[in-house]
Design goal:
alpha/beta, MCCB/AccD1-like, ClpP/crotonase-like_dom_sf, 17 strands, Acetyl-CoA carboxylase carboxyltransferase component, 40% helix, 18% strand, 8-stranded mixed β-sheet, 2-enoyl-CoA Hydratase, Chain A, domain 1, globular, single chain, transferase activity, 7-stranded mixed β-sheet, 3 domains
Length: 535
């Protein structure tokens, strides 16, 4: 392979300014992550500990193999909403008894672990990832069920939680429930529909209706233990497969269950990996503040891919899109990375051909976003930009190899689609703190609205209110800017997390490892259809 040669001046003033701007964004990100880690806050955390219980992240830490990484997903879910950051649940991929698993843990310090609308969306995303990547699922259950004031947004879509558990099991993907406290009403179906269930003596309570509801519905009087206690479910109903003494014992049993799954990856093993030749720390100073100055994505690749080795495809053609072959932690990838923002016809056709080649060789694709979209203008429209952009979007839509997307800069307009944005179902999608995504840039969007309003006033023969137009533009720019930022988008689960640029290689490696639990196969090139179309 060809070794990338970095030209990044790490001693210059521009690098220093970009680095300081990125560090400031990371400080903001860390403050928001801290809110998620804090759960329900000091009062409810203290109350939880007084009951002799572990916090959700402590449970996860004991469940995981020693020193194993945990790739937390969607930690900012619910950001900017009326609900606490994190959506009262922790989801992520970690190694348990040598097996990569999807872990879903209720945070009982947030309203008793009750599910709000963002909780269900976050768990849906986790279930999708588990199914696509063949990851056993471990639920750490302690939830009071639905957040009743928002039941209208939870009840109907929330039934998917139980459907997903049965579909995972039907696909041969084991599901495990470790019940640490209450699992009531609809929540009772989480252990009820899991393949393996562990309950804790005198702690776990699983019932469709608690004593007050049973009294109201039937007149029957019963206590928690007789109605849904762990001992009853282990000895009478049979719902519990294992009866644990305490929380550490439940986690030990969970690890033993996973150890006995006889789990094997179906995808190819990675080749030996080598570290990049350039320091990932330098990624802090690659992206310009404000995104108006283009940057070379090869500087990112030089600090992410194995050995900084990259075989570029069509380097002299359509050069505002970089395409080529590399490895990350030993796994092969085909890379599409925006170089100068705009996608022209040449770039679109180049991408379509390259995506077909990746499918022909069963190679996962990595998209590094920094695009303002497809080029507009009379000459470009006459030159076929719509049909050429459509070729690229068609190729992305029908590609069968796994896709990973990282938004490192702008991701605007249809360029977001062509580069495999969220609507195109990448296996994983992460963003850097420098990323922005919207239908177009704030100034462009406000300008379009201004032009339309001016034309409408002229057609009606009315004077145009310049002061009102200025105020409108300022308001729209501020709104679009705020709604383009990564924390806003991550809060709505439009990505799987905002990551530190220095962690990009590690995050991609963890994702690629998870992906290879399943076979990696592209669109069929079996001699019965068409070969690769040269664009």
């Amino acid at each position: 392979m060809s070794t990338l040669k970095s030209t990044l001046d790490t001693t210059g003033p521009e690098y220093a300014a970009y680095r300081e701007a990125m560090l400031a964004k990371l400080d903001e990100l860390e403050a928001e992550h801290a809110k998620a880690v804090a759960g329900g806050g000091e009062k409810y955390t203290a109350r939880h500990r007084e009951r002799g219980k572990l916090l959700v992240r402590e449970r996860i830490e004991l469940l995981l193999d020693e020193d194993a990484p945990f790739l937390e997903l969607s930690p900012l879910a619910g950001w900017g909403s009326d609900f606490r950051v994190g959506a009262s649940v922790v989801t992520g991929i970690g190694v348990v008894s040598g097996v990569e698993c999807m872990i879903i843990g209720n945070d009982p310090t947030v309203r008793g672990g009750a599910s709000n609308p963002w909780t269900t969306r976050k768990i849906f995303r986790a279930a999708d990832i588990a199914l696509e990547n063949r990851l056993p699922v471990i639920n750490l259950v302690e939830s009071g069920g639905a957040d009743l004031p928002t039941q209208k947004e939870i009840f109907i879509p929330g039934g998917r939680l139980f459907r997903d558990l049965t579909r995972l099991s039907a696909a041969g993907i084991p599901t495990v429930a470790l019940v640490f406290g209450n699992s009531t009403a609809g929540g009772a179906y989480v252990p009820g529909m899991s393949d393996y269930v562990v309950m804790i003596e005198e702690r776990s309570k699983v019932f469709l209706g608690g004593p007050p509801l049973v009294k109201m519905a039937t007149g029957e009087e019963s206590d928690d233990e007789a109605l849904g206690g762990a001992a009853m479910h282990a000895r009478v109903s049979g719902l519990a497969d294992y009866l644990a003494r305490d929380e550490p014992d439940a986690l030990r049993l969970g690890r033993r269950i996973v150890a006995r799954l006889n789990w094997r990856k179906h995808g190819p093993a990675p080749a030996p990996a080598t570290e990049p030749r350039y320091d990932p720390e330098e990624l802090l100073g690659v992206v310009p503040e404000g995104l108006k100055v283009p940057f070379d994505p090869r500087e990112v690749l030089a600090r992410v891919v194995d050995g900084s080795e990259f075989d570029e495809f069509k380097p002299e053609y359509g050069n505002s899109l970089v395409t080529g072959w590399a490895r990350v932690h030993g796994y092969p990838v085909g890379v599409l990375a925006n170089a100068r923002g705009i996608l022209f016809s040449e770039e679109s056709q180049k991408a379509a051909q390259f995506i077909q080649l990746a499918n022909q060789t069963d190679t996962p694709l990595l998209f590094l976003h920094n695009t303002t979209g497809y080029m507009v203008g009379r000459d470009y429209e006459q030159g076929g930009i719509i049909k050429h952009g459509a070729m690229m979007i068609n190729a992305v839509s029908n590609s069968k190899v796994p896709h990973l997307s990282v938004l490192i800069g702008a991701s605007y307009g249809a360029g977001h689609y062509g580069m495999c944005g969220r609507a195109y179902d990448p296996r994983f999608l992460f963003a850097w703190p420098s990323a922005k995504s919207a239908v177009m840039g704030p100034q462009q969007l406000a300008g379009v609205l201004s032009i339309v309003a001016r034309a409408a006033a002229e057609s009606r023969g009315q004077p145009f209110d310049e002061a009102a137009d200025t105020a409108m533009r300022e308001a729209v720019e501020a709104q679009v800017e705020a709604e383009s930022l990564p924390m806003f988008l991550s809060g709505r689960l439009y990505d799987d997390g905002v990551i530190d640029p220095r962690d990009t290689r590690t995050v991609l490696g963890l994702c690629l490892s998870a992906i290879h639990n399943n076979p990696v196969r592209g669109a069929q090139f079996d001699g019965t259809g068409f070969g690769v179309f040269r664009m």
